[in-house]
Amino acid sequence: MSAVPVAPGRRTADPVLEIRNLSVDYGYDEIPVHVLRQASLTLNRGEVLGLAGESGCGKSTLAYAATRLLPPPGLITGGQVLFHGRDGGSADILAMSDAELRASRWQDLAIVFQGAMNSLNPVFRVGRQIADAIRAHRPSVSQKEALERAADLLDMVGISPDRLRAYPHQLSGGMRQRVMIAMALALDPQVLIMDEPTTALDVVMQRQIVEQIAELRDRLGFSVIFITHDVSLLIEIADRIAIMYAGEIVEDATAQDVYRRPRHPYSNGLLHSFPPLRGPRRELGGIPGSPPDLARLPSGCPFRARCAFVFDACAHVQPELVAPDVPGDDPRRTVACLRHDPARVEAAGFTPVPVPPELALR
Prior knowledge:
alpha/beta, Rossmann fold, 7-stranded mixed beta sheet, ATP hydrolysis activity
C-alpha cells in the first residue's frame, strides 16, 4: 500500500489510522500485568494527535504495539490497528504477514524513537544509513540516487548536506534527532509516530524540533502521533490530545479544549503542574500520590486514590469513555470519569453527583 501525501496544509476528518480496543500484557505466567487495556484512538489525515501522560502510563507501549515493535515479554492480547491507504484500501497491521509488514514500514508508517543515538548505527555514516533505508524498500534506486535523496532530506530538516559523511557521534543530540526525522520521512509515509523526540534535548533545541515538525507536516501533509509527558508542548503543536492514565485513554479532545476546558480530574491536574505562560500568577497544584501498580490495580476508577473529586461510586464502578455531561460540549470529545456519566452511576445503584465547576468550564 503506497503512501500519497495529503496536499500541503490540508487536514481532513478522513481517518488514516484507527487503533481499536488494543490490549497488551507483560509476562507469560499465570498472572500477567495488563499494561494496556482496550485503548482506542483515531488519527485523521494531516492531523497531529498528541498522546500525553505520566511516565509508565502506557504511551510508548501503545506505539510499539500498534507498529508491532513491542519487545518480549510484551504480548498483544486483543484489538485491531487499521491503516487506511489513499487508494481506499484498509489493512489490519496486527494481521499482516511478516513480508507485508516489512513492505508497509517506512512507506506507510514510520516511527522516530526516543533515543536517537541508540537508533543510529555508530559505525556507519548517517548518509549511508538513510540511503540503505531507501534502497531496502526501493531496490531499483541506485546508491548515488539514494545518497542524493539523503542529502535533500538532511537539507529539509535543517542540516547541511555535507554532514552526510558524519558519524552519529560527530553530531549533536538535536542533529541526531533531525537525522532520525529525515530517515523516517525518506519514503514519504502517511503516518509518523514520534516517541518523546525532544525528551533529552534542551529547551531551545526542543523548540526548534517542534517547529521543524510543524513546518514539515504543513509542507508534506503527513499525520503525526506525538508522544510526550509534556502537555504544555502538545498544546502548541497538536490538533487533538489524548490523555493516558494507567494503561487507558481517559480523555480525548481538541488541544484547546484540553487546555481551556479539561473534563477529567487527571487532565486538570496535569495542566496545573506547569506554570502558565501568560495571565496572573497562580500556585502550581500538581497531582498528589503516585500512579497505581499495574499488577495490582484498585477496583473502580484507577485514579480515585489521587482524585480531588472522588465519590462513593468511584471505588466500585469502572469508568468508560463517554461524551462529557456538560451542555454545549463538543460531541466528539470523550472522557472516562463517573462525574460525567450519571447513567452508568445510577445503573450500578449509586447516586450521581454534580460535575464540579473545575470540570465544567465553558
